[in-house]
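Provenance and format

Records in this collection were gathered into a single text stream. Each protein contributes a sequence line and a token line. The two records reproduced below are adjacent in the stream.
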Amino acid sequence: MLNTTAIFVGIFALIHIPFTVFVGYHRARTGIQFFDGGDVRLLRKMRAHGNFTEQVPIALLAMAAAEATGAPRWVLLVGGIALLLGRAIHAFVVAKSGWGNGRAVGMVLTLFAIGWMGSIALFRALL
């Protein structure tokens, strides 16, 4: 059973919906159908959404692999919480200003989560 991973998959699936809606709403409001049309606010929303969809799936796969190999729940929670915080911080900064220290902090937390859970999965699989 991948119970802990399922919880985080559910959380991130629900978070994904507003990202998609924010981009779609902005497109509908501005009439920009493709790309960013030179609209910096749309570009920021697109990048926040894009970065989320680029990073979250691999992190959740690493979490599932770690859980499938019998990693303790606390290991999964550390990775999942780091990922959740990292994605929230990153998205907020990208959507608001596009850059800043918070963006770097968000990526560090995200990459920590991916590396943490990926390493645990690999280590446990090779035992």
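Adjacent record:
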Amino acid sequence: MKLQKKCEHTEQVALMNWCKIMECRHPQLRLIFSIPNGGNRHIVTAKKLRAEGVKSGVPDIFLPIPRNEKHGLFIEMKFEKNKTSENQQRWLMDLDAENYQASVCYGFDEARETIIKYLGLAME
């Protein structure tokens, strides 16, 4: 089996796999999903998605579970030295202003810890 180079994609896949594994102990993780707002696409597909409401800058992942007076958790995944764009920063600030937790996480470990802390999970 060929090993994949670590990147934002592989870190996000690892996070979603961890959530799938942990669903049996923490059923609320069944509700986590990614938002397909990035990546390179054929121009026809990009236009269709834009017409359907896909918007640039929206965070990558959403967990629609309210906790600690927050309506849900948005995660913008980054890897290594990647930075958020101005548009992503605006989305994160606007979501925070609407009482969502909006976090930037650098890789799988940070995203997993953010979810654990947000949900108040006891991890063995």
